[in-house]
Design goal:
317 residues, mainly beta, Immunoglobulin-like, 4 domains, five-stranded antiparallel beta sheet, disordered C terminus
């Protein structure tokens, strides 16, 4: 008489097997008694049952069975099986993936997998990360690799051994390899200075450049537009000379910045219109250069009338 399997795991049913014979009368089996014991305690709910479903077993349980054969008239002596110890089930994982599949230098790398354990033991799997094929021990057992750990052009992958604290799964699961892509540069504070230009003033295009990878600006494209029309002769210039400007014109610029690897989509600056006269600037000059004219004192009024005081009398200009 045996219990099978003889080295069961807790995801396997237990089945008792024996041979019945009646040498004297040749009668068939009827009324045989089967009694199961778990950890030496009778399991009455399974009386006369030949199979114990695995949902009733747990890791480290000890099971045995007693059988007393019967032909309906006579009963044999009780025979007991050898005990079997329920072994801890081996955990497993499905495929190991890294996301995103095309990361840039500002992306975290995330491992994803499904851990299964027949005993519902916790996931204590071993994770190993590899940079360009070399194990990086400082990231052992981390399911997330932060962006500050990666650099442009590096290749990363991970391996995993399923472990529940008791048993290992002997299969090493290997993730796909991902290559860290360049992070495109960023532009901010794009503007034309001055915002209210006048004839005689140049236009200057200003912006802030940032690159997460530390790449220097290279290959930036600047396109100027006058009255909505593209002006290719000014491509790449950050300044438009005053001699190129006329009163009433409306100007703006489109910029695509580049770090020599990636070029961003165009951003548009503010729009400015060239004024004919800078009245404020003119008044400043008058106040500066006309305080003394022909030995007299000039007073500039709020409406721009110059009153000349000379030798005790006033005159209007």
């Amino acid at each position: 008489m045996d219990i099978s399997p003889d080295a069961p795991e807790d995801d396997e049913d237990l089945t008792v097997s024996y041979s019945f014979s009646d040498p004297n009368d040749g009668q068939s089996e009827t009324g045989t008694q089967i009694i199961w014991y778990k950890n030496s305690i009778e399991q009455t709910q399974f009386e006369n049952t030949s199979t114990i479903p695995h949902v009733w077993t747990n890791s480290s349980d000890s099971w045995y069975v007693e059988v007393s054969a019967s032909d309906g008239m006579n009963r044999s002596t009780i025979e007991a099986s050898d005990p079997v110890i329920i072994d801890n089930g081996v955990p497993s994982v499905d495929s190991l993936d890294i996301s995103p599949l095309s990361p840039v230098t500002t992306d975290d790398l995330e491992l994803s997998y499904t851990f299964s354990d027949p005993d519902l033991d916790p996931d204590l799997s071993w994770i190993r990360w590899y940079r360009d094929g070399v194990h990086v021990a400082s990231y052992d057992n981390q399911s997330t690799l932060t962006s500050n750990a990666t650099n442009y052009g590096e290749e990363w992958n991970a391996t995993l051994l399923a472990y529940d604290g008791i048993n290992w799964n002997s299969t090493l699961v290997v993730s796909p390899t991902v290559t860290i892509q360049n992070s495109p540069p960023e532009i901010s504070n794009l503007q034309i200075i001055p915002s209210n230009p006048f004839v005689g003033q140049e236009l200057h295009l200003d912006y802030d450049y940032f690159d997460a990878d530390g790449h220097l600006e290279s290959g930036t494209m600047i396109h100027w537009y006058k009255d909505g029309q593209y002006q290719p002769q000014y491509d790449g210039l950050s300044t438009i000379n005053a001699t190129e400007l006329s009163a009433g014109e409306t100007w703006h610029a489109n910029v695509s910045i580049s770090d020599g690897i990636d070029v961003t989509q165009e951003d548009q600056s503010n729009q400015v219109t060239i004024g004919s006269v800078d009245n404020g600037n003119l008044m400043d000059k008058l106040m500066k250069y006309l305080p003394y004219i022909l030995g007299g004192v000039a007073i500039v009024t709020a409406v721009g009338i110059i009153i000349m005081k000379r030798k005790g009398r006033a005159s209007k200009k």
